[in-house]
Amino acid sequence: GVAFLRPAEDVFAQYDENLAARNERRAEYVAQRSEPAITRDGVRIRLDMNAGLLLDMPHLEDSGAEGIGLFRTELQFMVQPEFPDVRTQIEIYSRILDEAGDKPVLFRTLDIGGDKILPYQDGPLEREENPAMGWRAIRVGLDRPALLRTQLRALLYAASGRHLGVMFPMVAEVPELRAARRILDLEIERLARRNVAPPARLEVGIMLEVPALFWQLENLLPLVDFVSIGSNDLIQFLFAADRSSPRLSERYDVMAPGFLRLLRTLVEACGEAGVQVSLCGEMAGRPLDAMALVGVGLRALSVAPSAVG
Ligand code: PEP
Ligand code: MG
C-alpha cells in the first residue's frame, strides 16, 4: 500500500470519492445478492468464491457463493509457526468443511516454493532466477512426496463421509498428474485399511496454469473430474509477462484474442469430455472480464468474496 504523510486536501477528497464509489457498488451488489446468476438470455452461471483462511469462511454465507472454487491451502501454512503436522491439518480442513456445510470446497494442494517459501521450510539450495517458473507447487509435492502425502491424508480424514474436491496446481505434464493421483490412491487405500469411511464424493482435478498442458488435453481430460483455469499464472506464462510487474501491465492482457481463443477451445474440449471447467483467476471477479469469459463459453467462475456480492 501507499502511506501519505500529512495528505493534502485534494488527496483526502479523492479518497473520499473512491470510498463513496466503492460503498455504492457494494450496496448495489448486496441488493442483487439473492438474484440468481442468470444472463438476460437465460444462461446460468455458477459463482463460487476463492478462500485461503478460516477467516474467509463466513463470506461463503454472506456473499451467497455456491461453494469454494479455490481454497489456497498454502495460506493456512504461512500463518503457522512451524510445518503443521497431520493432526493439525486434519483439524484445519475439518473446520473448513464444517463451516462450508453443504457447499462444496475444492482444496488446492500446497502451492509453496518459488517465492512463497515458508519460513520453516527448506528452500532450493540456490536462489532461483525465475521463482514463478521454479521449484514450486506440485513440483515440490512430487519431489517431497511425504509433504503431499501428509496433506492428502489430512484432507481425506477431514472429509470422511463428506464431499472432497482436490486440485493439483502448476501441472505441466500428464505424468505429474498420474504421480500425484497415485499418491492420493495410496492414501485412500490406507484409509480403507484403517476402516475410516472415504469421502462420500471425491472430485479430482488440476489447475490449468502452464500452457503446455493445453496441448495434452486428449490425455489429460480422461483422468480428471474438473479443470480450474488459473488465469493469473496462465496469462503470465502465455505472454511471458510477469503478473506482478506494473511495467508489464499493458502487456498482461486478459482480453488478448489469443488467450480468449485458447479458452474457447479449452471449454469446448472439456464439454466434449464431460469435464467441468471453471476459472478462478482474478479476472473472473471483474465484471467486464467476466462477461468476456461467459462469451467464450465459461459457465462457472470462482472469485474473491467481495466480487460475488
Ligand atoms: C492463478 O494462477 O490464477 C491462481 C488462481 O493461483 P494463484 O493466484 O494462487 O497463483
Ligand atoms: Mg497460480
Q: Beta fraction of the residues?
A: 5-15%
Give the low-pLDDT segments: none
Number of strands: 8
Radius of gyration: 20 Å
Number of DSSP helical runs: 12
Overall mean pLDDT stands at: 94
Task: Output the helix-strand order.
Answer: HEHEHHEHHEHEHEHHEHEH
Basic shape: globular
Ends apart, CA distance between termini: 24 Å
- List cofactors, ions and other ligands: phosphoenolpyruvate, magnesium ion
Main pleated-sheet profile: 8 strands, parallel
| Strand numbers in spatial order across the main sheet | 7-6-5-4-3-2-1-8
Secondary structure category: alpha/beta
**Considering DSSP H and I runs of 4 or more, what fraction of the residues is helical?**
40-55%
Question: How would you sum up this structure, described in words?
Answer:
With 309 residues, the chain is α/β, with parallel strands linked by helices. Helices cover 43% and strands 13% of the residues. It has 12 helices and 8 strands. The chain has helices spanning 9-32, 58-63, 73-78, 86-100, 138-143, 145-158, 174-193, 217-220, 231-238, 257-273, 287-295, 305-308; strands spanning 46-51, 68-72, 105-108, 163-168, 201-208, 226-229, 276-279, 300-303. Strands 7-6-5-4-3-2-1-8 form an 8-stranded parallel sheet. Helix 8 links the parallel strand 5 and strand 6 (226-229). The longest helix is centred in the first third of the chain and has 24 residues, at 9-32. It is globular and about 65 Å long. Residues 209, 230, 232-233 line the site of magnesium ion. Magnesium ion (MG) binds at residues 209, 230, 232-233.
